[in-house]
Amino acid sequence: MVNIILGCQWGDEGKGKIVDYFAQDADVVVRVQGGANAGHTIVVGDKQYILHLIPSGILNPKTVCVIGQGVVLDPGVLLAEMKLLQDLGVVLENRLLVSNRAHLVMPYHRVLDGLKEQSASNKIGTTGRGIGPTYMDKAARTGVRMVDLLKPDKMRQKIAQNLGYVNQIVSKVYGAPEIEAEPIIEECLAFGGKVDRLITDTGAFLNQAIRENKKILIEGAQGSLLDIDLGTYPYVTSSNTTAGGACTGSGIGPTKINKVIGVVKAYTTRVGGGPLPTELAEEAGNNLRKKGNEFGATTGRPRRCGWFDAVVVKFAAEASGVGELVITKLDVLDDLLSVKICTGYEHEGVLLKHFPADLEILEQVRPVYEEMPGWQASTVSAKSFAELPLFAQNYLNRLEQLAGVPIKLISVGPDRNQTIIR
């Protein structure tokens, strides 16, 4: 059985906790795209784990974790993350595999990312982790892959060739100092010596696991509205964050996928620039941000907050064929007198029929809201849907109707145990 878990908003939906929850019953968990620009926070008991590259299922001692071919991998981040987990008592031996086809984030990618963002008049709000330039090299067919670490001479040649081009941009376009090749080569050689035992054909491993009837969980990073093709372009990430990207990033064919599970917050957030139609005014947004601790796990940046946007969630669910929804952070709304749901967009007096591709239109739309009474009672101890306050039940039922997808799981706190199965 192969299930996909992905975000149906602008990321930060709480996928880390949800993957960790489902991973308790999984044989394999796979990360399929993105890089160290995504952070998944997991709380188990009194311990908090923030992971950027290693799949969230690593906390289940019986689960094998795979970093798939669609991921762009920062060597320093991976080594630091491995050490952190080992220091916390997590066993990694024979439990972590990295695709030989995964591309490496090189130091010059981070330099290019920072220079481009600094010089841009219309900033995208990237994390500065070199993700975009790495995917650019991948598309240009000049990328350095994990398999290249196993052939040092070939890797050395690739890096030298790439820097010949990169340094032209760094020095002549941005007026910055050129980058030396040898320190980068030495860093990669050292990294290769530490992880060579992890490098494998993960696509072959995963398809063999399917033949053995293993339970596989695919972990998406970022959110559907950040998808390079379907998202709010150009304020998007550099990879496909929807279900199609899960197939190419893992090497698992679409006919082998059993279920797509979409994760959404009980409200909406996004980090960085770009449209957020339901964004709240400063005071209300700050209150929600503080209550929900809405600060990026990777960058610490404050997230912009808004009401639940059913237009976004329905669009994302249809794009990935989502069959079940998970609602997270319901407890953040516990104190509110009333809650609003965006049910549609109005533009120049016309109710739009589809989520707009035109960024100017999206920035100009007027959200059409339904207002519902808040429940003003704590949900954090609820163990079943029936134990939730009636108005909270009504709110969830309405979200389900508008999204057109059944809600199967509800999170009412950060801990693994604060999860309601419906």
Any overview of this molecule?
This protein has 422 residues and is an alpha/beta fold. Helices cover 34% and strands 20% of the residues. It has a 10-stranded mixed sheet, sandwiched between helices. Strands 14, 16, 17 and 18 form a 4-stranded mixed sheet that branches. β3 and β4 (47-51) form a beta hairpin. It is globular and about 65 Å long. The chain starts with a strand and ends with a strand. The relative contact order is 0.15.
Number of strands: 20
Largest sheet: 10 strands, mixed
The total of helices stands at 12
Q: What's the overall average pLDDT, rounded?
A: 93
CATH homologous superfamily grouping of the largest domain: Adenylosuccinate Synthetase, subunit A, domain 1
Structural class, please? Answer: alpha/beta
Question: How large a portion of the residues is in β-strands, by DSSP E?
Answer: 15-25%
Distance between the termini: 21 Å
CATH topology of the largest domain, by name, is: Adenylosuccinate Synthetase, Chain A, domain 1
Assign an overall shape.
globular
Low-confidence stretches: none
CATH class of the largest domain: Alpha Beta
Percent range of helical residues = 25-40%
CATH architecture tag of the largest domain: 3-Layer(aba) Sandwich
Keywords:
single chain, about 425 residues, alpha/beta, Adenylosuccinate Synthetase, Chain A, domain 1, Adenylosuccinate Synthetase, subunit A, domain 2, Adenylosuccinate Synthetase, Chain A, domain 3, 3 domains, 10-stranded mixed beta sheet, 4-stranded mixed beta sheet, 12 helices, about 20% strand
